[in-house]
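Colleagues,

For the teaching module next term, I've prepared a clean inverse folding example: a structure given as tokens, and then the sequence designed for it. I'd like students to try predicting residues themselves before seeing the answer, so please don't circulate the second half yet.
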């Protein structure tokens, strides 16, 4: 008998320090979290890993062990005798609509051994979006839940934005800043204040950064005494004015900076201010990224397991800020890119959220028939067209913790075709495809054309309510042919890279399943997206979505128009424009016309 308990707690976002791909791997440097290349043993794969699939984690990773120990603390609070970890046999991480981490672990309870499967699903944009499930072969049943998040209930890394936070007493940046500025304090003698030992350092994000250093200091030959040093650092202000320092020591002694007579000599081009300008700008950017990162952590309830993970995620976040700047700087449309729930993910992690399988076609594969494009003059096409306004598009769905975008693209296409044909809009089952389509890879990615053929072979699609979505592949196909509501008799492909043909087919027939490069979607906030081609290559398709309409955005003031496609995504209504994405129409942006197809209904 299996026991299951669900606990929502502060879970470590596990990232493997060794992630191998063929004979190469990337190691995370323990010191600074940088990625470096090294060699790994070759991995034998039975099939090519699809975007949306899980990544193997290093089972010896300290963060993996730390997570399990924290989870077991919750378990052992309700279990006699206590469990202990004997061996971690497998660990994987998958980025979908959030992050999914799975472990297989052997636990010891006294002399008895039990195998357990841990599953962590993290959705940082939801207030209670972190959940841990543990299933073991045991006769007992447990269900543990997180305590309510109230004002008085706070755990680590859930501090107020802007509040002082304790940092490492050996922080090199602070100690360097302290050493440089201590000599500016007026001690009343020729000897400068010197640091003996540090008791505590706190950092507070204000207009700049404010540090408090509590410790023991000495002045010349005098007996060391306790002081609290306040440092206010604003690196964008040049010279000494950018850093203010004062001290309050025992017996009420207060020290301020010395008064320095300003020189009336003109500054030389070699003056330190000229040399420090670039450094100051760099520090200002670092402070800005720290402020934004702390706001991100608070807004999306992001919690990290230790300082190494926190620093690594901040480093990734900082790099993503640069990507956001690049997207905004080179945006040729009106899209706005900014900080989203995916802003602390690497590119590789983000790609595993999508789920479109791009496999090579072989010579023996029969090509799909080309769609019959209606003979409509371009001038006769409507200026704007939207199937969502014509009752042929269901509400935005959410693929959740599963790389199943391909199935949502497919059901969306069939939902639209059936609604146009019968006048009845029905939501069909993606779960049926995950369970019954043996060609595609369920939560590990898929291919829309193959899914259409699978539906034909299976015998149709059930309603979503009859075969509800579980965001995972179940043990067996539960399709009931008597409950089938729609049947497919084939699939057709649109002419490649022909947006006019797509426009005609869309108007005459219904929504179209397409593959797209989702690079610009990671930070998309709204508007008509038109990224530089080098930032969103048409050859790198990694996400399956649904084309539902098109239009033109006009800007009379600038004598400018932006034709666009309207796309339905499967990341829930909180993403993008209520779950939709607009992208420039006319130059095959992000490969929007590279992989377009549609089912043919019976």
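(Answer key — instructors only)
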């Amino acid at each position: 008998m299996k026991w299951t308990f669900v606990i929502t707690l502060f879970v470590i976002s596990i990232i493997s320090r060794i992630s191998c791909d063929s004979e190469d791997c990337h190691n995370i440097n323990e010191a600074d979290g940088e990625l470096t290349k090294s060699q790994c043993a070759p991995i034998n794969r039975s099939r090519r890993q699809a975007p949306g699939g899980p990544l193997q984690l290093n089972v010896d990773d300290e963060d993996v062990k730390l997570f399990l120990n924290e989870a077991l603390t919750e378990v052992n609070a309700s279990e006699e005798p206590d469990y202990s970890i004997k061996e971690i046999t497998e660990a994987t991480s998958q980025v979908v609509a959030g992050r999914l981490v799975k472990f297989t672990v052997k636990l010891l309870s006294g002399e008895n051994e039990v195998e357990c499967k841990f599953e962590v699903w993290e959705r940082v944009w939801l207030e209670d979006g972190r959940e841990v499930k543990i299933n073991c072969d045991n006769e007992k049943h447990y269900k543990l839940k997180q305590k309510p998040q109230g004002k008085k209930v706070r755990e680590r890394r859930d501090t107020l934005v802007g509040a002082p936070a304790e940092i490492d007493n050996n922080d090199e940046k602070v100690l360097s800043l302290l050493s440089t500025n201590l000599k500016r304090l007026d001690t009343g003698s020729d000897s400068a204040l010197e640091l003996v030992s540090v008791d505590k350092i706190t950092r507070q994000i204000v207009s700049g950064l404010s540090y408090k250093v509590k410790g023991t200091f000495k002045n010349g030959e005098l007996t060391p005494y306790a002081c609290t040093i306040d440092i206010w650092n604003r690196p964008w202000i040049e010279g000494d004015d950018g850093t203010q320092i004062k001290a309050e020591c025992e017996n009420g002694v207060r020290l301020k900076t010395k008064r320095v007579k300003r020189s009336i000599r003109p500054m030389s081009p070699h003056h330190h201010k000229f040399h420090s300008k670039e450094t100051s700008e760099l520090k200002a950017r670092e402070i800005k990224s720290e402020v934004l990162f702390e706001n991100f952590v608070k807004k999306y309830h992001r919690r990290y397991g230790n300082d190494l993970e926190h620093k690594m995620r901040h480093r990734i976040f900082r790099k993503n800020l640069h990507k956001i700047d690049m997207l905004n700087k080179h945006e040729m449309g009106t899209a706005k890119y900014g900080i989203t729930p995916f802003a602390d993910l690497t590119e590789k992690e983000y790609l595993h959220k999508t789920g479109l399988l791009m496999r090579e076609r072989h010579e023996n594969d029969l090509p799909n028939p080309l769609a019959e494009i209606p003979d409509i003059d371009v001038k006769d096409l409507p200026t704007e067209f939207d199937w969502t306004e014509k009752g042929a598009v269901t509400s935005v769905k959410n693929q959740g913790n599963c790389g199943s975008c391909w199935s949502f693209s497919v059901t969306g296409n069939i939902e639209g075709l059936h609604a146009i044909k019968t006048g009845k809009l029905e939501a069909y089952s993606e779960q049926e495809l995950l369970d019954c389509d043996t060609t595609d890879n369920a939560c590990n990615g898929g291919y829309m054309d193959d899914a259409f053929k699978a539906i034909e072979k299976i015998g149709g699609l059930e309603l979503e309510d009859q075969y509800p979505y579980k965001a995972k592949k179940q043990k067996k196909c539960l399709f009931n042919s008597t409950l089938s509501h729609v049947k497919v008799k084939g699939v057709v492909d649109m002419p490649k890279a022909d947006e006019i043909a797509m426009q005609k087919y869309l108007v005459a027939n219904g929504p179209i399943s397409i593959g797209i490069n989702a690079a610009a979607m990671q930070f998309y906030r709204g508007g008509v997206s038109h990224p530089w081609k080098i930032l969103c290559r048409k050859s790198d398709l990694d996400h399956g979505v649904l084309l539902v309409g098109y239009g033109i955005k006009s800007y009379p003031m600038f004598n400018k128009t932006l034709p666009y496609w309207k796309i339905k995504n499967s990341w829930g209504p909180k993403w993008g424009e209520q779950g939709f994405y607009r992208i420039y129409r006319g130059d095959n942006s992000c490969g929007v016309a590279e992989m377009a197809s549609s089912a043919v209904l019976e």
